[in-house]
Amino acid sequence: MNISPQSTTDGIASWMLRRGLATIILLLCLFQLATWIPHLLTWPLFVDHDVFATMARGWDRGVLPYREARGNNFPGTIYLFLTVGKVFGWGKTWPIFALDSLFVVTFGLAMIRWNYGRSRRILPGVVGFATFLSYYLAADYTLVFQRDWHSPLFLMLGWMIADGRRTRSSLVISALCAAIAFSIRPQVVLLIPAILFCWSRDDEGNRRGLWSTARASLAWLGWFGGFSALLFLPIIAQGLWPDFIEGVRLAAYGGTYSQATWPRALKIAALQAIHLNDLIIPVGLLLLLPRANPKLRSSAWACLIALAGAWCYRPASPVPWPYLAHPYHVVLAVAVAMLVQMILEREWESSSTTLVVVLFVIVAAGVTVRPKYCSVQASLRAINDLRKGGLPEQPPIGCVVPMIPEDEQPYRWEDYRGVLRYLRDQTPPDTKVANLLVKAPALDAPANRTSALPAESLAWLVVAPRDLTSFSEAIEKSDKHSVVVWSPDEANPERTHRLSAAVRQLAPTIRRAYEFQARFGVIEVWRRRDHPIPAH
């Protein structure tokens, strides 16, 4: 019997679609995680992490957040740091990044489980997971463990639960996930319409009646509102709600921190369209919608609604920081999984054609073999560093500015290590630290010390410049166990950084109330004088 080359090719393609391709990509994902997680655990905290970690540690010691420790964010991330500190102890950084890696794995498993429950295939979920890993494993230490990744993560977990089966338990759990997401970032409400769309369809994707849709949607919103209220209850119970609202107003439109304007928002939205892979996936979903079965069509429409919300996330935010791209990529990964499932469900001319289309989607989604921060060598070195404890001698590959010597970023890695070691080993546990470094590397949380300022560092003055007076008073009135970490050179009038002016204004107070203690490169530690020099 003669076997045609075409039938052989189709047979191989069919096997690849059933098992081979999913196995290859899954092994690739495991390899990427294995070469990323070990050195991730050695990364230092970024200033954003220090904000929440310092507030969490202070709250544990009676320093009230939003009132005695200023903040302008929702409290969900504080709860995360508070949980990590309570479980693993304060001053440790590896549990924070371990939790982030757990979130990454959870997201992947959820996508695989969601797709398998719908199609009995793992390939779509695995491709979606690989899409996200290719993006997230190229993120440096300023972008990982960010609230704009955790918030859409929980929201999309809630969406996948709602899209799976329309039961009472899935409604409640979905609402809980969405409430957790909202407690982290308010902008995530832009993705909620995707969940509400699910309740307008039954388990088979058919449209429900108006009364059934309204009843299910109102029930979901009720649970969502109730869970959200519970998550804000610790703030309300301690009378901190007015302080919380005052802090949030700083980032609201018209606040001192917000840069949002309609022209800026439209420009950001337009610039998002220059990335071809961000457009190919939604276009692919739209093209396959007409011939999809009702269940797939319903889920695809929900994905498109979520993508539209994620598209608006960054333009609608007060300041367009790079990590605000996370929500779109979280939703995009789910949409990629949805698109692959629709391709597999459609009847093509042959298995070979199907495989080619799937491979095209994988390439278009940006899946790479080796994301930027996947490294066998760095992971092996990190395992040895973790055994020793403390920060590694060499900066981790994901640790960029301000930890490497550049003209604009003068803090060297060895100097940063030296400061942290000094604070941990050479100061009493009750020492309060005033971090007045312009680039604001994380000090308070990793050193396991309390801030001597009404915020975690000088960086708060970017949000609320009016609090400079409060900073000066805190430095002036601090107790004898307080230290200031700063770089006197940053008070130079030639320095153009917007926080350098604040350092110049604080310098006379520092020199009068503190005295030099230690130097690490350009970073100096000054200790509170026993007898401060009187002001003239």
Average of pLDDT: 91
Strand order of the largest sheet: 2-1-3-5-4
Radius of gyration: 26 Å
- Total DSSP E strands: 5
What overall form do the CA principal axes indicate? globular
Major sheet summary line? 5 strands, mixed
Q: What is the number of helical segments per DSSP (H or I, 4+ residues)? A: 22
Distance between the termini: 105 Å
Q: Would you identify the regions where 5 or more consecutive residues have pLDDT less than 50?
A: 401-407
What level of helicity do the residues show?
55-70%
Please state roughly what percent of the residues sit in beta strands, choosing from under 5%, 5-15%, 15-25%, 25-35%, 35-45% or over 45%: under 5%
Secondary-structure class? mainly alpha
- The H-and-E topology, N to C, reads as HHHHHHHHHHHHHHHHHHEHEHHEHEE
Structure description:
A 5-stranded mixed beta sheet has the order 2-1-3-5-4. It contains 22 helices and 5 strands. The chain has 536 residues and is mainly alpha-helical. It has a domain at 413-528. It starts with a helix and ends in an 8-residue tail after the last strand. It has helices at residues 5-34, 37-40, 47-60, 76-88, 94-119, 123-136, 147-164, 168-184, 192-198, 210-237, 241-251, 262-271, 276-288, 294-313, 326-345, 351-364, 376-388, 413-426, 444-447, 460-463, 468-477, 500-513; strands spanning 432-435, 450-451, 482-486, 514-520, 523-528.
Offer a few descriptive terms.
single chain; 536 residues; mainly alpha; 5 strands; 4% strand
